[in-house]
Amino acid sequence: MIHYDKNSNLIEKTIFYLEDDELTNESTSFLLKRFYKNVHSFYNANDALNAINNGIAPDFILSDIEMPIINGIEFAKKIRELKLDIPFIFMTAYSDSEYLKEALELKINKYIVKPVSDTEKLINEIFTLLEEYENSKVKDFITDSSIYTKTDDQGIIIYVSNSFCELTGFSRDELIGKRHNILRHPNMPKLTYENLWKTINSGKIWKGELKNIRKNGEAYWIEHTISPEFDNEGNITGYYSLSNDITEKKDFEEEHLRLLQEAKHSSIEELLENISHQWRQPLSVISLNAAQLEIDLDFESLTEEEKRVSLGTIISNTHKLSKTIEKFSKYISNDKKLCAIYIEDEIDLAIDMIGSSLSSNKIDLILDIDFENKTKMTFVQNEIAQIIISLMTNSKEALIQELNLEKKWIKISSSCINNIYTIIIEDNANGIDESIKDRIFEPYFTTKFKSDGVGLGLHLTQRIVKESFKGDIDFENSEFGAKFTISFPIKE
Question: What pTM, to 2 d.p., does this model score?
Answer without folding.
Answer: 0.46
